[in-house]
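Dear support,

Our group has been running a series of protein-ligand predictions, and this particular one with magnesium ion is the one our PI (initials K.S.) wants archived with full inputs and outputs. We had some confusion internally about which version of the output was final, so please treat the block below as the authoritative record. The input we submitted was:
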Amino acid sequence: MQQSRTKINFLLKKAPVGTSVFVKGWVRTKRGNKNVTFIALNDGSTLHNLQVVADPGQIAEDILRKVNTGTCLAVRGTLLASQGSRQTVELQAETVDILGEADPEKYPLQPKKHSFEFLREIAHLRPRTTTFGVIYRLRHAMTFAIHQYFHHKGFFCVHTPIITGSDAEGAGEMFRVTTLDPTRPPLDETGNIDYRKDFFGKETNLTVSGQLEAELAALALSEVYTFGPTFRAENSNTSRHLAEFWMIEPEMAFYDLEDNMNLAEDFLKYLVQYALDHCQEELEFLNERALEEEKDKKKEERSEMTLLERLHFVVENQFARITYTEAIDILKNSKPNKKKKFQFLIENWGADLQSEHERYLVEKHFQKPVILYNYPKNIKAFYMRQNDDDTVAAMDVLFPGIGEIIGGSQREERLDKLQSRIREIGIAEEDVWWYLETRKFGTAPHSGFGLGFERLMLFVTGMSNIRDVIPFPRTPQNAEF
Ligand code: 4AD
Ligand code: MG
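Confirmed final output from the archive:
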């Protein structure tokens, strides 16, 4: 039987010196001289490399010649205490097998710093860099923490559909799903495309949110959440927007807006604390990386806190909570508004807040996360619970460096109010008949929110572009990998 492979993570932490081990991984660097070769091997189980020591007396010259950055190897040998200062153990190679060669003339990843722009062009290989290994592992840790948080609270995970027949949410432009022949679509009596002949017998799209279906489940199971991909065809080429992103949407019966805000704050703090507790090495690596990057920035553009300081700060401080109306007052009287520095000046109550305004509130005015609530009903979705004035019980959580990280609300549970609102907005009742029925039969006060997973990852990793915290970003003009 073949000796089983040991993961480098385990080996560096737990394997005693003197044991015989078998490892597999990809070469990060090779250096040395004619007497000895040092190979830094990485198998993705940790950001650390294992130093493999190969003596020419033991490993044939023609094998060592094939060992280059990117080569995949299987190495058998003995673990020794390391002579070098950078690692505690190293592997004295007894056999080296080449599993996959990498031509050094052609392999795009070299043992030097590559720009993130370049790495996006080789997203099929960038998981092999230290930074992206760190990001992939952190995404896993955060995914696990999200399920653990809700599981411990007694929430149930529900899988909401990805293909949807309703466009009621209005959260953004949608991607159509169809099997009709684009060159010869069937037409109806009026000359329009006849979607009755399409696969589902109606027009369908990729969902922008699992909320409406999560509500149906919450009105039966009390506390649920979805965690799935969502799609928005907005043509917004920013460092905060993706056309395909993952969203966590809890939905809770019997929660009012305040309960909803409490859950959102507790949830975010739990996730950040989880990263601090379980991903220390990854965060320290990213912290150092960010400090290096800061050196290239102008003084006024540098952040006041390091990544680790920001993470601790969020966990240790209460979020500010203010109404939209209070926020407008602050913004109206703010320096950048008076000096016309905002791209969109705040003049009247009712204005939609742009990310420059959100970031001013968080980064300059309060200098901590802010929950804004009770927004004008005209800038929010139809399902939000109407207050006695012109506002709805909406809430957005705003984070430093990010802007909006969570959007949510108490839901309108009163049938008559909901019906009059959808009429006002121009949504056809027959399009949301099933949603309305939950208000006809056993309706209940309820609330929920959506956390953008990649926005969370931006905050936790300190990365500056959302394309670099998802393995294969989908953005306008970009769906290569
Ligand atoms: O504020 P949004 O549009 O809210 C909803 O979709 C609700 N149905 C959520 C709910 O109440 N269940 O989106 C929620 C969050 C935003 O706060 C943001 O973090 C993220 O999703 N988000 C995006 N992330 C990446 N790329 C985009 N294009 C995003 N649009 C929204
Ligand atoms: Mg929103």
